[in-house]
Amino acid sequence: MKLYTKTGDKGTTSLYGSSRIAKDDIRVWAYGTVDELIATLGIVYAHLPQNDERRSIIQTLQKDCFMIGAELASDEKGLQLLGEKASNLHVEELESLIDKFQECASKFTEFTYPGHNILSVNIHLARVTCRRAERYVVGLGGYDIVLKYLNRLSDLLYIMAEAEK
Predict the structure, then answer these.
(1) CATH number reported for the structural domain that contains residue 74 in this entry
(2) Do 61 and 90 meet the contact criterion of CB atoms below 8 Å apart?
């Protein structure tokens, strides 16, 4: 089996479920940006020491984002076939992590500029990528839990970056 199918050569792509849409459709921008977020979280992961507990957190976030990307890349038929979708439980897990990292971060009274160290900068890069994904998902409408998740994830990434100072 070859990697290339040539089915996208005319500017369309398949959703999970089999319908086709234009590659510049806002849905593609949304799940494509979530894909960028997964890669950016990979940069964060790569900069963490081997024995750092945050590595497993980052891997869980990547897995969750992959799940969200699949949800966004599915048509109605595909949504019915998905095994797992974003839920309030995922959002609550993020809130617990935010609380945990907020205890480690110094009290913040204003937003800070990224640049304290390479890890902090890359966490902030993941945060802004997450915010961009969130904006595209708003444009899609109807993804309330995904929006909550992305909103909390960007908060978590902010506080993780702050804790890194």
Answers:
(1) 1.20.1200.10
(2) no
